[in-house]
TrEMBL record, chain A:
Superkingdom of origin: Bacteria
Signal sequence, renumbered to the chain: 1-24
Record Pfam families: DUF5128
Keyword set, alphabetical order: Signal
Protein name, entry field: 6-bladed beta-propeller protein
Native organism: Pedobacter metabolipauper
UniProtKB/TrEMBL annotation, chain B:
InterPro entries attached to this UniProt entry: CarboxyPept-like_regulatory, OMP_b-brl_3
Protein source organism: Pedobacter metabolipauper
Domain of life: Bacteria
Higher taxonomy: Bacteria, Pseudomonadati, Bacteroidota, Sphingobacteriia, Sphingobacteriales
Outer membrane protein beta-barrel domain sequence ranges: 466-932
Protein name as it appears in the record: Outer membrane beta-barrel protein
Length: 420, 942
């Protein structure tokens, strides 16, 4: 079933509903009325021991060879077979098996010498089992398979649209986020955030509208370092977040719905008219810089059964309550950085790594969450553990005995308890 | 923007673990006895939210008298463990954490098990939920507040007279080095601030050795967020004064008197308020204690607390007998956070008497040597005044400053000299008696104003704004008035060669220079079109110089006893020069990094610079009229490679190539020749060409080791070649009279290295320091002597090794040795060489309380190829005692040069001569000194 038929079917079913909508060239309407409102006070989030919160945690050292050595993980995508990693240091995309064994690599050019060769975010097409990416010039799409083999290069021709933030919803179907567009055509009524696109060029439908009156605003947006789409193990479902907004939207081939809406305490919430009020015009970033307790965006949003995982971004460098786990059934709120490593995690690091501030809990495959630690941190912890009698897994034993603090980063795969 | 935030977070995490978490250990060792064997284990938690409180503070007191026994920060698991606590007596533990209510509990460590495991200490949040407010009646000794480490001064019980430096010595992880450097767990403290500001110009010791510990509320250690170097930002130490101690004064009145009419007076008074600092200081002595600026003088009068060191000692190497007076004032005022004014005034007067006796051997040719014996006496006086003011205004992305200074100087000297010269080949002898009275007055003004602006990224508009531009204008004006009378009497065993002069010289000189330098960086960055392969900077410096000189010279008419104008030497001249140096600089840097492993950076720089030089001279004397223009290309290039292997080592290699050009001045081209300079007649050479130098410097730096023990090695290799080098052509007649002028010679070459090694080891309270420096310089200097080309090769080496040991600031000892050698070979003559060897030992002890003893001994050995060895030893010792309430009184007995052996050796060599001799110096004296330190803090506002 292709996207067009899907949309038409759903449209037929829900055409009478209102509020949030995907308007399309076909004038389709899709909605959700059952938004879940969540009152969350991050400053009151709990902690706990790793064994209280994790069902299991596995450290996966990523094999270090001359070929596979990389710096740090800027982007991680988890497929059925591979961890796919983008590294800015070496300007490469690397494939490791689920056991951490090096599988393949796509080497970009030397971006130190020529910045135009820098590889931008890659997208995974789970239907065709390929990844596609562009370099800084954004003139060509490079298609590779999961063995690192180049399949094709498709040049973007003059007049064709440029996409950068998007995800695949099907073999040849995308949903594209354009953010705020300060340069709307004069005759446009309103702007919109999302486009449903087919064949990389044909827009099927649009969604998430905003009023033209608030423009220009894009220059005044402070975005988190990840997003705006987050996958949590279902190929055709993504969470989507908007700037200066506390809602998590669910994007599916069928349409967009507002899944969760957070209400934060006054001292950490942005003014409700932050976007509309002209007094804030061109002062929004400054306001956030000066009010470092204000949550300016959500990111890293995932759902695994009743656990909703998200990051409430602030500019406060000491904030330990940014990465949160909310149990939808019990209302338990846990701050990830208050979780204490213990025997179940071999007293090895579980949070607050050097890279954690950038990427946080960087991926979710529906069963597990993923984050990473540098070998420098792992070995520091290992040395501190010398006085404890810890039973490391065979994989970790091999890593600590044969490896060194110069090895590749180590992935941490975490399964959360369902009942928190 | 957000990446910057994340980088900041990352850095904070790294620094936090490197610098601060090392503090989770037990400190403040108390008097231990057999009951100090107990151990306490525990855990601090927020039980409501179910997490441990990392870095919470735990303090243990005796329950009966509230004496603080020990404290520490909880570790990453919220756990703590105290060792060596008394068993069998009631103790109290207090746990505190920012934003939480502190809790206490009492316990006894059983004497039999010697161990107690406390129940988890559960802290509850303070009700008002404001992180800034810490609802604790009793503040903990140390705590983490955000990323600032804070020590509560009141928690550290010290002598009532202790100063901040004594407090710092007691703080865990803080080290004060023998050279004054302060480190916190190996991290160097870049600035010591008082209430967030520099204190009396920023000399660390003025703050740490004067401010009493009891005036301090807390000491904060934090990384400087303003620092542009985000990877290795500066660490600052801020002394926060108590609310009622934000103002105060401190000072010193001291005097000493000793044998041989030796005396020393010192006075200093400094006052400060929150916005203003003012200091007055003065000193007078005849024991070779001198200072060149007002900051140094203030530093000398520091109070110091328990660990009294000797750093204001007589300089026994200073030539002659000296009487030195100085005084000055500093003023600083902060109008607001952006605007500040600083002003300094310094006065100094030195009177000096030198008696010297030297012998110079001049090689004339293979067989002939000129032996010159010289005996001289001179009385010199130098009075100078210097005032400067500095106004700064900082804008958000630019800063503006005006610095100005005025100086006045008056010098006089009276010299008498007898020189006898013998030519070993011809046996010709001559004798020159000369006498000079000189008086020299100078006044000058300097103005320095600049504006520096930088291009920045505006977050609001997402655009880069402004430009990278620095413009500096300098003006210097100088007026000089010089008067001199010189009597020269030359006699010889060769008849008819005698000469006699009695001349008076009067010179008025006025000169002014204007210079404008412009530095316009990253021109391509203005295009705003992505990144560029090179960074291009434009630099220009334009300087104009103008000097007018009027000289009147007269010879004494013995009949009329009047000075009659000498038409050959009397002159008026006007010299002007214009120096323009435009240049384009191309820089490129490439960084290759692997997160958490290494960062390697290659950078290359090419500076295409031109130098245009124009000089004009107008003079009464036709031969001095000059108008010459020169143009040269003076390129420079460098390659640098930096390799930072995180946690292992840091290496830096650089290769720099520079070119420079020296232009001959009027003195070298066409000077007015004064025939009264019998032994050294300087002529001009109008055909002199500019000298052009190529120089290459290769540098290597290694820094490594752990945070506690560190090592630092640096090596520099320098090689150069000068085309058309300015060298001497000297013609000696049989009587040793030298007529010389400057000539161009081909290819002067030189090569040399400088290396240093610095290592530090800390073992508990013991600290060992090793430093070694070594240098070698070799040069080939062509020249002419009596018309034949002579190549002189010289080799200098210098090696210094010193070893230091200190224990808690109570004991300091050191050993050092330095060796200096010089060797010269010249075609057709015997080699000349000399060596100086100095071996020293020093020790200091601060014990018992209020008593300090220090002593140092230096053994000097001087070896020369043509004279006998000279050996001597200088041994000094001091003992002092502090008394009165507040230790405001000090009595000190000093015995200097106890062995009465101090001698000053003169040893130097140049192209074809080597000189050796002695000068009178300060010798043995004993002195008793008394000092009173007036001090009050919190004197103005109560």
């Amino acid at each position: 079933m292709n996207l067009r038929t899907t949309i038409k079917t759903i449209l037929f079913a829900l055409s009478f509903a209102a509020s949030l909508a995907v308007y399309g060239q076909d004038d389709v309407t899709l909605v959700s009325t059952n938004v879940t409102r969540l009152r969350v006070d991050p400053s009151n989030a709990s902690g706990g021991s790793a064994s209280d919160i994790f069902e299991g945690a596995i450290y996966i050292p990523l094999e270090t060879t001359k070929e596979s050595t990389f710096g740090q993980i800027s982007q991680l995508e988890v497929t059925d077979e591979y961890f796919i990693i983008r590294d800015e240091n070496t300007n490469s995309i690397l494939f490791f098996t689920k056991a951490g064994k090096f599988h393949a690599k796509i080497q970009g050019g030397n971006s130190n010498l020529d910045y135009t060769k820098r590889i931008r975010d890659f997208k995974v097409n789970r239907w065709t089992k390929e990844i596609i990416f562009q370099n800084t010039m954004m003139m060509t799409w490079f298609h590779y398979d999961f063995n690192g083999k180049k399949l094709k290069e498709i040049e973007i021709r003059k007049g064709e649209p440029h996409f950068s933030d998007f995800v695949f919803l099907g073999e040849d179907k995308l949903v594209v986020s354009s953010g705020y567009n300060d340069y709307l055509p004069a005759n446009a009524k309103d702007g919109h955030f999302l486009d449903y696109v087919q064949h990389f060029k044909d827009t099927l439908a649009t969604a998430l509208y905003y009023s033209k009156d608030i423009l220009p605003i894009n220059d005044d947006v402070l975005s988190p370092s990840t997003g705006p789409f987050f996958n949590y193990g279902i190929d055709t479902e993504f969470f989507y977040i908007k700037p200066y907004n506390y809602s998590i939207y669910k994007v599916t081939p069928k349409g967009v719905s507002e899944a969760y809406q957070f209400i934060f305490p006054l001292f950490s919430a942005l003014p409700s008219d932050f976007i509309q009020n002209p007094d804030f015009k061109q002062k929004r970033i400054k306001y956030i810089e000066h009010n470092t307790d204000k949550i300016f965006a959500l990111s890293n949003c995932y759902q695994m059964k009743d656990n909703l995982i998200f990051r409430a971004n602030t500019m406060n460098v000491d904030n330990k309550e940014e990465d949160l786990i909310y149990n939808l059934k019990t209302g338990t709120l846990i701050a990830y950085n208050h979780i204490l490593t213990d025997e179940s995690t071999c007293f090895l690091p579980i949070g607050e790594g050097y890279n954690f501030g950038n990427t946080g809990l960087m991926a979710c495959d529906g069963k597990s969450l993923y984050t990473d630690f540098s070998s420098l941190e792992m070995f520091q912890a290992y040395e501190k553990n010398a006085d404890k009698s810890i039973k490391y897994s065979p994989g970790l034993t091999a890593y600590f005995t044969k490896g060194s603090n110069r090895d590749n980063p180590v992935l941490l795969q975490i399964r959360l308890k369902e009942k928190l | 923007m957000l990446n910057a935030l994340n980088v900041l977070k990352m850095i904070r995490n790294i620094l936090f673990s490197l610098i601060f978490l090392c503090l989770s250990f037990n400190v403040q060792a108390q008097k231990k006895d057999s009951i100090y064997v107990g151990l306490v284990d525990g855990l601090v938690r927020d039980s409501v939210h179910n997490y441990v409180l990392k870095s919470a503070t735990l303090s243990i007191y005796r329950a009966d008298n509230a004496q603080l026994l020990s404290y520490q920060l909880a570790n990453n698991f919220g756990k703590f463990q105290f060792k060596e606590l008394p068993v069998g007596i009631r103790l109290r533990i207090t746990a505190s954490y920012i934003g939480y209510q502190s809790i206490s509990q009492e316990f006894i460590i059983p004497a039999n098990t010697r161990k107690i495991i406390l129940k988890a200490m559960n802290l509850e949040r303070a009700e008002n939920n404001l992180q800034e407010v810490n609802i604790v009646a009793e503040r903990p000794p140390v705590r983490m507040k955000g990323d600032t480490l804070e020590f509560n001064a009141d928690a550290f019980k010290l002598d009532t007279n202790a100063v901040v430096e004594d407090l710092l010595r007691k703080l865990p992880g803080v080290t004060i080095w023998s050279d004054g450097l302060i480190t916190v767990n190996g991290k160097k403290i870049s600035n010591v601030l008082v209430d967030g500001k520099l204190f009396f110009g920023g000399d660390t010791k003025i703050a740490t050795q004067n401010l009493p510990k009891n005036a301090v509320d807390k000491i904060q250690v934090y990384t400087d967020k303003e620092d542009k170097n985000v990877v290795d930002p500066n660490t600052n130490l801020n002394i926060v004064l108590k609310k009622d101690k934000k103002d105060g004064y401190f000072g010193k009145i001291g005097m000493g008197y000793g044998t041989d009419k030796r005396y020393a007076f010192d006075g200093m008074l400094s006052g400060f308020t929150a916005k203003t600092q003012l200091s007055l200081v003065g000193s007078r002595n005849n024991v070779n204690k001198t200072a060149n600026d007002v900051q140094t003088l203030i530093g000398y009068s520091s109070f110091k607390g328990e660990g009294i060191e000797q750093d204001y000692q007589s300089d026994f190497s200073k030539q002659g007998l000296n009487e030195f007076s100085s005084g000055g004032a500093t003023f600083a005022h902060e109008f607001n956070k952006k605007t500040s004014l600083k002003a300094d005034y310094f006065y100094s007067d030195s009177q000096n008497e030198v008696l010297d006796q030297v012998q110079t051997l001049v090689t004339l040719n293979e067989n002939a040597l000129l032996v010159q014996d010289k005996v001289g006496t001179s009385v010199n006086g130098n009075t100078s005044h210097r005032a400067s003011a500095n106004y700064t205004h900082n804008y958000e992305q630019a800063n503006f400053y005006i610095n100005s200074s005025l100086q006045g100087q008056q010098r006089y000297s009276q010299n008498a000299q007898v020189m006898e010269s013998l030519n070993t080949e011809t046996n010709a002898q001559s004798k020159n008696k000369s006498q000079q009275d000189n008086e020299d007055r100078q006044t000058g003004i300097n103005l320095f104003t600049g504006l520096a602006m930088k291009r920045y990224y505006d977050n609001a508009s997402h655009h880069s704004k402004s430009i990278n531009l620095e413009v500096v204008y300098k003006y210097g004006g100088n007026k000089r008035n010089y008067e001199s009378t010189r009597i020269t009497e030359f006699t010889s065993n060769i008849p008819g060669e005698g000469q006699y002069f009695n001349r008076k010289y009067k010179t008025d000189e006025n000169n002014a220079s204007h210079s404008l330098s412009t530095n316009f960086s990253d021109l391509l960055g203005l295009l705003n079109s992505g990144s560029h392969f090179f960074t291009v900077n434009f630099k220009n410096e334009l300087t104009s110089y103008d000097s007018r000189e009027e000289t009147w010279v007269g010879d004494l008419n013995t009949g009329s006893q009047q000075y009659i104008s000498n038409a050959n030497l009397t002159n008026t001249s006007h010299y002007r020069s214009l120096n323009e140096r435009p240049g384009l600089e191309f820089t490129k840097s490439i960084t290759k990094s692997l997160s958490s492993r290494y960062s390697k950076t290659w950078s290359m720089n090419f500076f295409a610079q031109a130098r245009l030089f124009d000089q004009k001279n107008n003079s009464d004397k036709a031969f001095q009229k000059l108008d010459k223009s020169y143009a040269h290309f003076i390129p420079a290039a460098s390659i640098n490679y930096k390799n930072d292997q995180y946690g292992h080592y840091y290496h830096n290699y650089s290769l720099n190539y520079t070119t420079s050009v020296s232009y001959p001045g009027i003195y070298q081209l066409a000077p007015i020749v004064d025939d009264a300079n019998v032994y050294y007649l300087h002529l001009g050479n109008p055909v002199l060409k500019p000298a052009y130098t190529h120089e290459a410097v290769l540098k290597f730096t290694h820094a490594g080791g752990q945070t506690k023990n560190s090592e630092f090695i640096s090596v520099n290799l320098t090689a150069g070649i000068t085309k058309d080098h300015f060298s001497d052509s000297s013609n000696y007649d049989a009587l040793g009279r030298n007529v010389h002028y400057t000539v161009n010679v081909s290819d002067r070459k030189y090569i040399g290295y400088y290396g240093s090694l610095y290592e530090v080891y800390n073992i508990k309270d013991h600290q060992f320091q090793v430093s070694y420096t070594s240098s070698l310089n070799y040069g080939r200097n062509p020249g002419y002597i009596n018309g034949s080309e002579v190549m002189t090769k010289s080799l200098n080496t210098n090696n210094q090794l010193s070893l230091g040991y200190s224990f808690k600031g109570l004991v300091n000892t050191g050993l050092s040795q330095s060796l200096l050698t010089y060797n010269r070979t010249q075609q057709g003559s015997s080699d000349n060489s000399y060596k100086n060897l100095v071996t020293g030992i020093n020790a200091g002890l601060n014990w018992p309380k209020n008593v300090f003893i220090s002593s140092n001994l230096n053994y000097n050995k001087s070896i020369s190829s043509y004279a006998e060895d000279v050996n001597f030893t200088i041994w000094n010792a001091n003992v002092g005692y502090r008394f009165l309430k507040g230790n405001n009184g000090e009595v000190k007995f000093s015995a200097l040069d106890l062995l009465h052996q101090n001698t000053s050796i003169i040893n130097y060599g140049d192209s074809n001569s080597i000189t050796r001799g002695t000068v009178n110096v300060l010798q043995q004296y004993f002195m008793v000194s008394l000092a009173y330190y007036p001090r009050k803090f919190g004197s103005i506002k109560k």
